[in-house]
Amino acid sequence: MTLTVRSVPTTPFEGQKPGTSGLRKKVKVFAEKNYTENFVQCILDAAGEQAVNGAVLVVGGDGRYFLKEAVDIIIKICAGNGVGRLLVGQNGILSTPAVSALIRSNKANGGIICTASHNPGGPENDFGIKFNCENGGPAPDAFTNKMYDLSKVIKEYKVVEGINVDLNKIGTNKFEVNGKSFVVDIIDSVANYVELMKEIFDFGKLKAFVSGSKPLKMRIDALNGVTGPYVREIFINQLGATDDNVVHTIPLPDFGGLHPDPNLTYAKDLVDTVSAGDYDIGAAFDGDGDRNMILGNKAFFVTPNDSLAVIADYVDCIPYFKKNGVQGFARSMPTAAALDRVAKAKGQEVFETPTGWKYFGNLMDANRLCLCGEESFGTGSNHIREKDGIWAALAWLSIMEHTKKSIEEICKEHWKKYGRNYFTRYDYEECELAPCNQMMTDLENLITKPDFVGREFSNGGKTYKIKLGDNFGYTDPIDGSVATKQGLRIIFEDGSRIVMRLSGTGSSGATVRLYIEAYEATNVLGAAADMLKPLINIALEISQLPKYTGRNAPTVIT
Ligand code: VG1
Ligand code: CO
User: Fold this and answer.
1) CATH classification number, 212-418, choose in 3.40.190.10, 3.40.640.10, 3.40.120.10, 3.40.50.300
2) Burial class for 395, CB neighbours closer than 10 Å (0-12, 13-18, 19+)
3) For ligand 1, which residues put their CB under 6 angstroms from it?
4) Which residue in 95, 117, 307, 398 is the catalytic one?
5) pLDDT tens per residue, range 108-145
6) What's the predicted TM-score (pTM) here?
7) Is 117 an active-site residue?
8) Nearest to 231 by CA among 189, 202, 267
9) Is the dihedral of CA 367, 371, 374, 378 positive or negative?
């Protein structure tokens, strides 16, 4: 029987503007009649030929509340628009790195990922949808702008209502739509990704290290997010770890009430357990599996900036890089410059991009970049086009295995060799939008005045002299596309920096991010909070943040 396509009249919704990584709104908003349908139609319209006329797309998400409903809608709308084949994770489950890997290994035309990443889930919390292109990476700005423009004028979406697929059952579902074939393959959520990890790392060595005569003491925490099944397969089945090495490995629609963000505040259970116990490594991943946090014994915290720099320094102990060579490094602008020192020592190019993984893709595709990261717990390589939490944990295991040293020793040696980029980020979550916008405007005006350069600010016995103030802009070296207004930077003569920007991943209000970085060549064993105190005070003074936001303290410090 051939199924028919129905055009359903609809009207635009306000605010379907993708942020740093897709569209994120409350579940209640996505569940409104036609809201999700509209957005999916706009994705396909923006993709045009890339996504229709028999195209292959990967579809999956992080298991959060509303996933199955959204996948059902995506299937029906893809059918209505002439997509040829969908690869859908079993029960809709696919981590963000797994989607990227699947797009690449299947030479698919793109993928639709259902996630609000590190944002909380459940009926009262967040849902999200984003599109990844055929290179496996998040859609670039030009594409998401097109989606947004379409969302403002949409008049109808196309749907095939008669398609019902059992997401639980692995296998092929064939349909005929308007005389053309439409296939939905329900696939194993983890197999393809696990194969990729086995190609990248030396699983034989890692297995002996993890579960040999002196088993590694690990606590791998999936925070009830999507990585649970991946963690179980890789760490337990492949590397021989025991059940008590992994926790929270069942993806739950509300993440069990946890905030699935692997940082010192939200992964508190991991931090407390690792500091009280005797562990060689603690690791956590976010809801969709692209972020990671690495802890050493007694919860020694590896900042994501240092994590990236250390991996860069030891890049040769990972078989993937040995085989493919090393082609350049990159970090997002707010990320501390620890990486740059390693790049210099190794004679590698290093790029400074705006916040968000989408800006790394072109460089990777052009073979100018093989390892990159963000201060926001994102680390990854050109094996895919997303950051990759489990990959980062396996990279650290490889370094530990190679050096036979503890995480703390590895970091301290790194600082002795390169100096240390002290770093902290203050988040002021869910502030009122208007005063935050005003603060950013006023601050930009202040720091871009010619007489700002050369001014001196003193606090806590330290004096810093302004070298530059600007709103960061980036020209993509590959396609020349320009991204402006990517964050206010105040850079001092000694290289220390204050960066301020508004988050693009929240679902309501405004979140202010304040990033502070100070470099010390020899004084490398201080406490970050003490070392950075003077600069933090200077940042609050220059920006007048407490006055604008009414906040005296941040919600999260990392
Ligand atoms: C945040 C981070 C950014 C990251 C983005 C997506 O964006 O700062 O570095 O790429 O989240 O990560 P923003 O605009 O809120 O600062 V994820 O794991 O939420 O896809
Ligand atoms: Co994420």
Assistant:
1) 3.40.120.10
2) buried
3) 20-21, 117-118, 286, 290-291, 332, 355-357, 374, 376, 378, 503-505, 513
4) 117
5) 999 999 999 999 999 999 999 999 999 999 999 899 99
6) 0.93
7) yes
8) 189
9) positive
